[in-house]
Design a protein that fits this description.
single chain; three-stranded antiparallel sheet; two-stranded antiparallel ribbon; globular
Length: 135
């Protein structure tokens, strides 16, 4: 199997996993806005009024106890560190968030071009009805 095909399968699996939790959809939608304002993946966001299940999902991923917090403060570096400890470590949040966040994004988002800091200098993604394709 080609490297691109493996990455595409891994990315699809990661997106399916993260889409199961509304907490991750909220976090990634918030970081998309941060990306737009900062021009890069970074910053801090605060989530309010999360359900117990959402706090458990995020707490498990970030390895933090979030159950007793009213507001949950999350940094991009915390998200990167948490991702690096998973089987999806070779992926980047800029690539992962595109197919997860709601489709209320501008029309330019269906075809995305991201510049990566890691192994692939240029990665294109087409968001499809039932998933996405990396090419």
């Amino acid at each position: 199997m080609k490297e691109d095909e493996k990455r595409n399968l891994l990315l699809n699996e990661c997106v399916r996993y993260l889409k199961k939790s509304s907490a991750f959809q909220k976090v990634l939608a918030g970081f998309r806005e941060k990306y737009r304002s900062l021009g890069h993946w970074g910053g801090t966001m605060v989530l309010k009024e999360l359900s117990r299940e959402e706090r458990m999902d995020l707490g498990g991923f970030l390895a933090k106890d979030l159950l007793k917090k009213d507001d949950v403060r999350i940094t991009a570096s915390q998200m990167e560190k948490a991702l690096s400890g998973t089987r999806f470590a070779e992926l980047e949040w800029e690539v992962i968030e595109a197919p997860i966040t709601p489709r209320s994004a501008p029309p330019a988002w269906p075809l995305l071009l991201f510049f990566s800091k890691k192994s692939y200098p240029c990665l294109r993604i087409r968001v499809l009805e039932d998933g996405f394709k990396v090419f």
